[in-house]
Design a protein that fits this description.
By secondary structure, the protein is an alpha+beta fold. The chain has 3 domains: 144 residues, Creatinase/prolidase N-terminal domain (Creatine Amidinohydrolase, Chain A, domain 1), CATH 3.40.350; 134 residues, Creatine Amidinohydrolase, Chain A, domain 1; 292 residues, Creatine Amidinohydrolase (Alpha-Beta Complex). The chain contains 19 helices and 28 strands. The strands form 8 sheets. The chain has a 6-stranded mixed sheet with strand order 4-3-2-1-5-6, with helices on both faces. The chain has a 6-stranded mixed sheet with strand order 12-11-10-8-13-14. A hairpin with a 2-residue loop joins strand 18 and strand 19. Helix 14 crosses helix 15 and helix 16 packs antiparallel against helix 17. It is globular, with a radius of gyration of 25 Å. It starts with a helix and ends with a helix.
Length: 596
C-alpha cells in the first residue's frame, strides 16, 4: 500500500517537475498533535508516531523521527522502501542537510506551504536559492492522492468559565496589547491553537485529546479578528467575542486578510509557528517582529485559580489511578488481562471522576518489552497478555475542567529480576532528586536536568528524550516554554527560565530494547522558596498523587535523603487520596504508601 502511494505521489511530482517533496507532521498551526485530516505523513509512510518528517525524491524516501520512536518507526517502515533517519544520532543528516545534498542544480523543492512554518520554509528557500532552483508550495499533493481523506474537523466550541480560567479574556487581550505597545507593532498574528484557546477562554475537540478549535487570530490595537469555521460557535461565544471587539471571519480568509494589510504595518508573530503561506502573503512593505507569542509565557505561568484547580484535578486523577493500581495488583494472575483491558479499566475509573472531559492523550499501557518503546500504543495485533511477573508501564492522563494530568507508573506484576529492581530504583532516585531540588531564580531546565540523569549517567545509561515538559491547562499535554532537558533543542522551545506557576513533568526512565521499559512521572509546580542575600530561591511542589510501587524498590541503594523524600511523598498521597477510597482500597494504600 505504501509503495503504491509513493508511486502515485512521484507521478504528481513528475507532472509538476518537483524533484523533492517534504511531508511534515503538522496542521496549518504547527500543532504537535493533529487531527485525522492532517495525518498526511502517516498516510504516505505508514509511521503513526506523533513526530516525524518524510522526504520523498524521485527514487528515494526517508523518514526522520526522534529517539522516542526509533523502535516503533523501524517496525512500521519495514518493507516500505522508506529509510529511517534517527534524528540526533551520530552521522545522521538533518532533513535540511539531506535536501541540500539531494537537490540538483536548478531543481525544484515542493511542500504544502500551509503545513511548514515560516522559519523552516525560509531555510528551505535558502537551500533552493543556493542551487538556483525553485519552490512549489501552493498545492497539497498528498491530498490529491488521498481518496478517503477524513473531513476537516468541525466540532462545537465551548466557553471556559472564569472559575476555571481564573482570568477574563478581556484581561488577557489587554495583557497582549501591552506587549504589542512595547514592541511598537500594529498587529499580532497568532496561529498556534493552544494560545488562541487560552486567549479567548474557549475549548473544542478538533484534534483527538487536544481540546482546541481550528482557528487563527489577529490582534489589533483596539479590535481583534478571529478566523474560524463559524458554525462551531454558539451564541454565548459570539456575544463574548462581540463584547471584546473581536470580529469573526471564515477560517480560510486569513490568507486574504493578511495580504491586504496596509503599507508599513508592523506585525508581531512567531515565524517558527506561523505557516509559510501566511508570512509569504504579507505585503513586502509589512515589517515583521519575529518573537515568541506573548501568550506562550502568560499561559505557562498558571494563575492562583488555575493552580488550585490543578491540585483538585490531580486528586481526582490520583483516585482513579490508585483504584486502577489496586485492581491491577489484587487481580493479576486471577482474571485474564491484556494491555488493552488494563487501559480500558483505567479509562473507566477516570470517567467516573467529577469534571472529567477526556483522556489527555492515548494511554501507553505497555508490558515488558513493549515498554521499551517510549510511545507504544497497544493494538489488537500487539496486545500483550499480562502475567503475574515482570513490569507493566502505564503512561496516562486526563482532561478535567480543573486542568490536565500526565502520570506514569511502572508496576511489578509479580517477581522481577535483580536487574529490573536495580533499574527501577535508579529511575526512582532520578525522579526524587529533581522533585526535591532547590535552586536560584534564573535557572532553566537545562541547569537542573543533571539531577535527574545523574544516577543513570553514573552507570552509563541514558534515555533518548527530555526529562520533562510543560503541561497546559485543559490544553496540550506538552506545553512550551518550560521543560527539563540536558541540551537545548530549539524546535522544542522548552528552555525558558523556570517561573512561579509553571507546571512541568519529571519523568526519567530506562528503556532496554527487547527487554523492558521503566518510567516514573510526576507533575511539579514551580514555586518560590525563601529569599536571601543571594537571591530568590525556587522549589517544586509535586501535584501527582499516586503510589510508586514499593514492590519494585531496593531501599539499600537509596540515600537517607531520598528515602525521606519518598516517605514524605507517600504520606501526602495517602492523606490526599484515602478519603475517596473504599475500606479495602484504603488498607491496600496504607501498605503501598508505608515508610521505607
Amino acid at each position: 500500500m505504501i509503495k503504491r502511494r509513493l508511486e502515485a505521489l512521484r507521478q504528481l511530482m513528475l507532472e509538476r517537475n518537483i524533484d523533492i517533496y517534504v511531508v511534515p507532521t503538522s496542521d496549518f498551526h504547527e500543532s504537535e498533535y493533529v487531527g485525522d485530516y492532517f495525518k498526511a505523513r502517516t498516510f504516505i509512510t505508514g509511521f503513526t508516531g506523533s513526530a516525524g518528517t518524510a522526504v520523498i525524491t524521485k527514487t528515494e524516501a526517508g523518514l526522520w523521527t526522534d529517539g522516542r520512536y526509533f523502535i516503533q518507526a523501524a517496525n512500521q517502515l519495514e518493507g516500505s522502501t522508506i529509510e529511517l533517519f534517527k534524528m540526533g544520532e551520530e552521522g545522521v543528516p538533518t532533513v535540511s542537510q539531506y535536501i541540500k545534498d539531494k537537490l540538483q542544480e536548478g531543481g525544484c523543492l515542493g511542500f504544502d506551504g500551509r503545513v511548514i512554518n515560516a522559519t523552516l520554509g525560509d531555510s528551505f528557500s535558502t537551500i533552493v536559492n543556493e542551487k538556483n532552483g525553485s519552490l512549489k508550495v501552493d498545492e497539497d499533493l498528498i491530498g490529491m492522492i488521498w481518496d478517503d481523506r477524513p473531513l476537516l474537523s468541525k466540532e462545537p466550541a465551548y466557553a471556559l468559565d472564569v472559575k476555571y480560567s481564573g482570568k477574563l479574556s478581556t484581561e488577557k487581550l489587554a495583557d497582549v496589547r501591552k506587549v504589542m505597545e512595547e514592541e511598537g507593532v500594529d498587529y499580532h498574528i497568532l496561529t498556534s491553537l493552544d494560545d488562541i484557546a487560552w486567549l479567548f477562554n474557549i475549548r473544542g475537540n478538533d484534534a483527538k485529546h487536544f481540546p482546541i478549535v481550528l482557528s487563527f487570530a489577529i490582534i489589533g490595537k483596539e479590535e481583534a479578528h478571529f478566523f474560524v469555521q463559524e458554525d462551531v460557535l454558539n451564541e454565548a461565544i459570539r456575544m463574548e467575542m462581540k463584547n471584546n471587539k473581536v470580529q469573526i471571519h471564515n477560517y480560510e480568509d486569513i490568507y486574504t486578510f493578511v495580504s491586504q494589510l496596509k503599507d508599513n504595518t508592523k506585525v508581531l508573530l512567531t515565524k517558527g509557528k506561523v505557516n509559510f503561506r501566511i508570512v509569504n502573503n504579507l505585503p513586502r512593505t509589512v515589517s515583521i517582529i519575529d518573537k515568541m507569542n506573548p501568550t506562550t509565557p502568560m499561559k505557562a505561568m498558571k494563575n492562583p485559580v488555575e493552580l488550585d484547580n490543578i491540585r483538585l484535578a490531580h486528586i481526582r486523577d490520583g483516585v482513579a489511578f490508585t483504584k486502577f493500581m489496586y485492581w491491577l495488583k489484587t487481580n493479576i494472575g486471577k482474571i485474564p488481562m491484556t494491555e488493552i483491558d488494563a487501559s480500558n479499566y483505567l479509562a473507566k475509573r477516570r470517567e467516573e471522576q467529577p469534571g472529567f472531559i477526556d483522556l489527555s492523550f492515548d494511554t501507553i499501557c505497555a508490558y515488558e518489552a513493549n515498554a521499551a518503546m517510549m510511545h507504544y500504543s497497544a493494538t489488537e495485533e500487539s496486545n500483550a497478555v499480562l502475567e503475574p511477573k515482570g513490569f507493566l508501564l502505564v503512561d496516562s492522563g486526563g482532561h478535567y475542567f480543573e486542568g490536565s494530568t500526565d502520570i506514569t507508573r511502572t508496576m511489578a506484576l509479580g517477581p522481577i529480576t535483580d536487574k529490573q529492581r536495580y533499574h527501577f530504583t535508579l529511575v526512582l532516585r532520578s525522579n526524587l532528586n529533581l522533585a526535591s531540588a532547590k535552586f536560584l531564580y534564573g535557572c532553566c531546565g537545562q541547569n537542573l536536568d543533571i539531577l535527574s540523569r545523574g544516577p543513570l549517567w553514573e552507570i552509563g545509561l541514558d534515555y533518548r528524550c527530555g526529562t520533562g515538559h510543560g503541561v497546559g491547562y485543559l490544553l496540550n499535554i506538552h506545553e512550551a516554554p518550560n521543560g527539563f532537558r540536558w541540551k537545548i533543542v530549539p524546535e522544542r522551545n522548552d528552555s525558558a527560565v523556570l517561573e512561579e506557576g509553571m507546571v512541568t513533568t519529571d519523568e526519567p526512565g530506562v528503556y532496554l530494547e527487547g527487554e523492558y521499559g521503566i518510567r516514573t512521572e510526576n507533575e511539579l509546580i514551580c514555586k518560590k522558596a525563601e529569599k536571601t542575600e543571594y537571591g530568590q530561591f525556587m522549589e517544586f511542589e509535586a501535584v501527582t498523587y499516586a503510589p510508586i510501587d514499593l514492590d519494585a524498590i531496593d531501599p539499600s541503594i537509596m540515600t537517607e535523603r531520598e528515602k525521606k523524600v519518598l516517605n514524605d511523598y507517600h504520606k501526602m498521597v495517602f492523606e490526599k487520596i484515602s478519603p475517596f477510597l473504599t475500606n479495602e482500597e484504603v488498607e491496600w494504600l496504607k501498605k503501598y504508601t508505608a515508610a521505607i
